[in-house]
Amino acid sequence: MKLQYIEPARRWTEALPIGNGRLGAMIHGHVESELLQLNEDSLWSGGRKEWEAPGAKASLQAVRELLASGKYAEASLRCKELMGPYNEAYMPLGDLRLHFEHGNLASEYERSLDLRDGISRVGYTIGGVRHTREIFASYPDKAIVVRLEASEPGRLTFHARLGSPLRHRTLSEAGSLILRGSAPEYCAPNHQNPDEPIRYGEYDTTTAIRFEGRLGARCEGGAASVDHDGLHVRGATAATLVFCAATSFNGFDRSPLTEGRDPAALSAGHLADALERDYAELHRSHVDDYRALFDRVELRLGEPLAPAGMPTGKRIEAYGGGDLGLVELLFQYGRYLTIASSRPGSLASNLQGIWNKDTRPTWSSNYTININTQMNYWPALTGNLASCHEPMLAFVADMAASGRKTAATYGMRGWMAHHCTDVWCITSPSGGYGNGEAHWASWTMAGPWLSRHLWEHYEFLDDLRFLRERAYPIMKEAAVFCLDWLYEDEDGYLVTGPSTSPEHRFHAADGLAGVSRASTMDMQLIWDLFTNCISASEALDSDCEFRDRLVSARARLYPMRVGRHGQLQEWSVDFEEHDVHHRHIAHMYGVYPGRQLTRRETPELFAAARRALERRGDDGTGWSLAWKIGLWARFGDGNRAMTFVRKLMQLCETEEKNYHSGGIYANLFDAHPPFQIDGNFGFTASLIELLVGSHQGFIELLPALPDDWPAGFIKGVRARGGFEVSLRWTDGKPTEAAIVSHAGRTCRLYAPRPLTVEESGGATVETTAEGGDLVAFATERGRTYRIRFDG
Ligand code: FUC
């Protein structure tokens, strides 16, 4: 279960990521001059600012009038009046460089990232001495730990330096090397004005976020010393370097200057604590912590095709998605990256997780919330990493707090947010005060989509207290906004407007347009939110009156329609698409990750959705390919899903930005060229959807098994209702399964062949139209139920 290479990284997308949720590093593995590119998840440019458009109510009214008269292109232009500033950017923290005095002429070089223990290793031989490095990011010790060893006593000599592309200085204090700096007060998005200088303030008075990184060492043999130029180790046999960092960020609504945290005190405290422990202790606490999460899920699809020692980059190139071992590796890598980028107390992972080297990252390495941030968390629950969902839950709560103000500018109650945001939780349309375009900036439905994560957290864990105290109040307020935002059309349907199908345009009578009324995705999102709120209020046995309002509003939502190609319409009118192969497939929300459209409940619309997906073609960027795998899983077509598995698993050779292709880099990072992490998470989540589903009120085993994976097993994935599922299959059919009940709910289970539940006090069996059995049995909390397959 390793990523492995026989040479150092030649570029960033060959370097290997480690992370403890908050601190991240990209390890390059150079022999003479090792480079760890460093990140801290709260280091962003800018600060909280006022961004609400003062005339929003009047502009909204004007836009709605244009929409009513079919002037969609004109309405799209008027939407610019509503746009606030662009979001700010996620910043790199710096670099840790280790310069060794042994030269560069190494033999027997190897470099790896082992997913079984979350440790990256580098090894090589110079002058008969074997040098090894072990590098990991420890969540319990809040540190990045670098262990260096030489096979001969006294042969380890190097100096370590810290630097940063941000404004900074380095100093030494009490045996540690310090990197002190600040983020820019303003950083224009790279696609907007790449030549505009980044603006900094003075360190002591800047309104931007300040940061501090600290490096300390413990040596075995030899001596260590620190001066402003670096940390020097001479004649040692082994050394442990510990790096800690913190920033002054203290929440989206607090000034990092006057209400900030003290990065010096925090990083010094973390470093002192970590340096009190020897390497064996640091190693043990990291491995215990990591494995407690990672080991919960196993996947086996078959024998790997590639020979055992083949470097990962070559392996992707030679075999791609045909190598079952590589599929397993990429699957587990998504879980690894979840653990590395999202832990309780960290911020939600952004477009690049927590790994970014650029001061002008692509799309500002922001939170794009019209698919991307959500996709980052698709595998958290099914992949049995519920605690890693926590940063997303906290993010949604912050967005709700911030988004009330934006709702109010439209004259609405509740909370709302547009298509992207940053660490300051900007919720107005992030469109550069009218420089942006309506088809992306004017999407208004982030509230419903983000709220789905709260509801799903409840559904998977069956935690009523979480639902009552944390989830429902936020879901309800998102619904309150939707009730205010919806208005009646000429036929009495409730519609949204301006409404986009993110980020796609259509040909209207008055030109190319981005906004209309009641796009299919808007209606699906609102249906989903209302339905979840209705279920939540039933589960909590409260709020009946509000529930009734939702029930009646839901019945009046503008209905989905089938268009002239037999496709599920993307918009309420059967417009001609601007780009029939567009990477966004917003109107598929109701199939996946939503569940409004299913073969059993809505067969005609479900078939039309399938037709719409076919029309979209088989290409896409990384996240788009990953989404399509999940969609074909929901359509029950594993072989079709394999087309996208293979496409996503092609080696991507370019880092030039484009909107059409996908793939993976040699370090398995997903490409929407350049790197964008959502496709990694989407891949992992969608793969589970092929094997175990639970969105229709029952657990379904092997809903869409590809023919290429005739035998295998998956252990420990989670299903709604508080269940944990393990499953083995042969000849494409389930042969054994076990279900652990964590919540004691009745289990409903569907498999494509007759089954018996052992030791359950009896089960009721319904034979379904598809021919398989839908079995229901009562469970006790904490018990495991074995399933036998009979025919
Ligand atoms: C939107 C998408 C792009 C990309 C970016 C972060 O612009 O359309 O494909 O995901 O966000």
UniProtKB/TrEMBL annotation:
Matches recorded under InterPro entries: 6-hairpin_glycosidase_sf (IPR008928), AFCA-like_C (IPR049053), Alpha-L-fucosidase (IPR016518), GH95_cat (IPR054363), GH95_N_dom (IPR027414), Glyco_hydro_b (IPR013780)
Lineage of producing organism: Bacteria, Bacillati, Bacillota, Bacilli, Bacillales
One Pfam family, short name: Glyco_hydro_95_C
Keywords assigned: Hydrolase
Molecular function terms from GO: hydrolase activity
Glycosyl hydrolase family 95 catalytic domain segment(s): 279-691
Species of origin: Cohnella cellulosilytica
Protein name per UniProt: Glycoside hydrolase N-terminal domain-containing protein
Sequence ranges assigned to domain Glycosyl hydrolase family 95 N-terminal in this UniProt record: 3-250
